[in-house]
Structure formats: C-alpha cells, structure tokens
Design goal:
The chain has 236 residues and is α/β, with parallel strands linked by helices. The protein has one domain: Spore Coat Polysaccharide Biosynthesis Protein SpsA, Chain A, CATH 3.90.550. It is built from 7 helices and 12 strands. Strands 1, 4, 5, 6, 7, 10, 11 and 12 form an 8-stranded mixed beta sheet that branches. Strands 2-3 form a two-stranded antiparallel ribbon. A two-stranded antiparallel ribbon has the order 8-9. Strand 2 and strand 3 form a beta hairpin. The longest helix has 16 residues.
C-alpha cells in the first residue's frame, strides 16, 4: 500500500491591512521574528505533519525560503507563489502537493501560536474518518443579529455558536473538489467551501492561544503569551 502523508498549507501572500501600514502581516515581527516563522514552526512541530507548503508573494519566494531555512523541524518545506486572494493561494498550494499526500490542513499564518496538539487533533479526526474538521471554541460573548440600520433583530443562542480557528483539516479529494467548484471568489474559510458541497464538517477542541493576529492589540497579547511560555520553559 502506498504510504500517505499529511501536508499543511500556509497562505501568506496577503498584506493584512487592518494591522496597519508597513510590511505584509506575515512578516511583521513578533518577539524578534516574523509572524510567519512562528506559524510554520508551530505546525511543523506537530507529530502528524510531514510537509508544510507556504504560499508566499510571488516576488518573495527566495527570501521566504531563506527566512524559513533555519527552523528546526522534521517536516519537508515547500514555498510556492501565492495568488491575489487567500483562496487563490490555497488553490495554487494544492497544485504543488505530491501525490502521496492524502490529508491537507490549511492554517492562517496570522495564527502563529497554535499549540501543536491542536494540529494533531485535527489530523487524527480526518484520519479516523471525517472528510472535514475544524478546531473551535465556545462563544462567550452575547451575539446580536442586526439589520442594515444596525438595529438589533434577535439575540442568537450562543450555546450553539462556535468560533472557528485553524488549521482546518480535510481529506485531500474533498478540499480539491470544493476549490474546483467554487466561484473563484475570496473565501476566508475553506470549511465553508467544503460545506457548500454538502460535506459534513466536524469539530474538535481549539485553543485560546490559537487566536488570529489582526489588530495591533493582538500583537501585544501574542508577546505576552510568548513571554509566559518562555518563563515556563516552553518554546518562545
């Protein structure tokens, strides 16, 4: 039987303008290193990951390879040219996958502190039969639905709501089919593309530390998390 492998796609070609002017979001410094380095290190250190494919800006492929070359991990690393949108970057990375990859995860570069155990939980769920898996957290805030005039129409039952994180995991065929069937837009949630094809999406427990860096305040929080990890003897 042909051996099977697990790959993680990290789209990192976007600019992330909500974080403010300057370098692309994935290259902003966090504790002295680009956010992308932290993200790749996090997913590559998971036991179940064999390959990491980074979709970088097409004018920064060589520099991204150099940037990631010093990360210590056992996973294979490939850098490809990303596209204009996140969805396009994921689609291009899918084309670069070797034929022996049958499980594919997609991880936001802007979630640099995801614990490796979350990555392995996603992989395990796909390996044991799920076509699509997402890590989630319970919603703690009260959520209101409003109309175009910002008038509240109803209060949602937060007991049935979940905040979605990454990496999201898929059987390779399911993810490829979903991207092939999409309208070519800019989907920010690969599970949504798969869900649109009628495929059930399962959930596993996420982690508070897997938050997404979007605003300057998120960088402050990420620095605090890394400081706490270093103080406790973890990897910074």
């Amino acid at each position: 039987m042909r051996p099977s492998r697990t790959a993680v796609i990290v789209p990192a070609a976007g600019r992330g303008e909500r974080l403010g002017p300057g370098a692309p979001k994935a290259l902003r410094l966090l504790s002295g290193q680009p956010i992308l380095v932290h993200a790749v290190r996090a997913v590559a250190s998971a036991r179940g990951v064999d390959l990491v494919v980074v979709a970088a800006p097409d004018d920064a492929i060589d520099s991204t390879r150099r940037l990631l070359s010093d990360i210590e991990h056992d996973a294979q690393l490939i850098v490809v040219a990303g596209g204009e949108t996140r969805q396009d970057s994921v689609a291009r990375a899918l084309l670069a996958l070797p034929p022996d990859v049958d499980v594919v995860l997609v991880h936001d570069a802007a979630r640099p502190l995801v614990p490796p155990e979350v990555v392995d939980r996603v992989i395990s769920a796909v390996r044991t039969g799920s076509d699509a898996v997402i890590p989630v957290l319970a919603v703690v805030d009260t959520i209101k639905e409003v109309d175009d005039a910002e008038v509240v129409r109803r209060t949602l039952d937060r007991g049935r709501l979940r905040a979605v994180q990454t990496p999201q995991g898929f059987r390779r065929e399911a993810l490829q089919a979903a991207h092939a069937a999409s309208d070519g837009g800019d989907a920010t949630d690969d599970a949504g593309l798969v869900e649109a094809q009628g495929i059930a999406v399962s959930t596993v427990a996420g982690a508070e530390e897997a938050f997404k860096i979007t605003r300057p305040l998120d960088l402050v929080l990420a620095e605090a998390v890394l400081a706490r990890r270093r103080a406790s003897g973890g990897v910074g």
